[in-house]
UniProtKB/TrEMBL annotation:
Keywords: Cell outer membrane, Ion transport, Membrane, Porin, Signal, Transmembrane, Transmembrane beta strand, Transport. It is found in: Cell outer membrane. Gene3D superfamilies: Porin (2.40.160.10). Residues 1-22 form the signal peptide. This is Porin. It is a multi-pass membrane protein. Homotrimer. Residues 12-321 form the Porin domain.
Length: 344
């Protein structure tokens, strides 16, 4: 009873009172992930305490007076556990927006949500990542890992108990890219087809004119068309994953040329008793500069309880610095930390 009252109290601070007082009430959830790390970028070698996208959120569903239809909502915030600051020194923010949306879900027609949240492309590529939110995260070398504002997404129900199709559109809302004003209903599109039966995961993702980074442009943001194929095998003791992705700028007239990144990533883990030993390796090959950006990460997790673990890891992100205008990246990280998840 006390847990239910606490969940309602926290939920009332994030969503409107009418939602907080729903029959089932909201679920309050989150995680605290903190690591103590030595970070060396080739210029500075220093120790830091990192918050690693620790978060708190509230989510839930409301039964409506329409058969098989319910309202769904989520409000999730990143919290800075280390120094209380997710913003700049001039604009300190303990909490910053992560995934926040509202919408509707029908048992047989699917789900429609709108707000700011991870794109279908990002969610479907990230399933293979063994070091998410750490400095060994695959987004260190691959573009498209975007949490997009002003996004509207439709998702089918799970077809044949395994397949889900997700399509999202992003209106430009009057923004300007080059000399082009983006004001159509769907200036950007993000989509994915996902197969997941518990043991085998597979996805195909496609982005069209989504603002993200290209290493071939010096890691600068631009409008990008991208496609990936990802797969992961989950067994009792083993996990094996792989991703292949190709990204290119949408408009050569705006960027002054054609730029293309091709990324290959493999990941794996071995579980024995409470231990999980894991590793991943990836390479992004830039087309114009002929540069390569490489990610190597190894680590181990020790499960203290179902929702708690301690971990240690090593990660290195580097470029081979070949070709005109090549990148110069040499980041090495060693860290130890813990993660506690909670839900009530």
């Amino acid at each position: 009873m006390k847990k239910q009252l606490l969940a309602l109290a926290v939920g009332s601070m994030v969503v409107v009172p009418s939602v907080a007082l729903a029959d089932k009430g909201p679920t309050v959830y989150g995680k605290v992930n903190v690591s103590y790390e030595n970070q060396d970028d080739g210029t500075n070698d220093e120790w830091k305490l990192e918050s690693n996208s620790s978060r708190i959120g509230v989510k839930g569903a409301l039964d409506l007076d329409v058969d098989q239809l319910k309202a769904v909502y989520q409000a999730e915030f990143q919290m800075a556990v280390d120094d209380g600051n997710n913003g700049s020194e001039s604009d300190k923010q303990t909490f910053s927006q992560r995934n926040i949306f509202g919408g509707f879900e029908h048992a047989t027609l699917g789900r429609l949500i709108a707000g700011k949240f991870d794109s279908p492309f990002k969610k479907s590529q990230g399933e293979i990542d063994q070091f998410g939110d750490l400095r060994g995260d695959i987004n260190k070398i691959v573009g498209g890992s975007e949490r997009i504002s002003n996004i509207i997404q439709y998702s089918t129900p799970k077809l044949a108990n395994a397949v889900t199709v997700n399509v999202a559109m992003v209106p430009g809302e009057g923004t300007t890219v080059g000399n082009e004003r983006r004001d159509s209903p769907a200036d950007g599109i993000s989509s994915s087809v996902v197969f997941d039966n518990g043991m085998l995961y597979g996805s195909v993702g496609y982005d069209s004119e989504i603002k993200t980074n290209l290493f071939d442009l010096g890691d600068a943001d631009t409008l990008v068309d991208a496609m990936h194929v990802a797969a992961k095998l989950n067994m009792d003791q083993f996990e094996v994953g792989a991703l292949i992705q190709q990204s290119e700028n949408s408009d050569s007239a705006v960027d002054g040329g054609d730029y293309k990144d091709t990324t290959y990533i493999v990941s794996g883990a071995f579980k024995v008793d409470r231990w999980k030993l894991k590793a991943q390796y990836g390479v992004t090959d830039t087309d114009l500069t002929n540069d390569k950006v490489k990610l190597t990460a190894v680590g181990a997790d020790y499960k203290m309880a179902k929702a708690s673990k301690v971990f240690g890891y090593f990660a290195k992100v580097e470029s081979d610095n070949t070709g005109a205008g090549a990148l110069a990246i040499d980041d090495t990280t060693f860290g130890i930390g813990f993660e506690h998840k909670f839900s009530m």
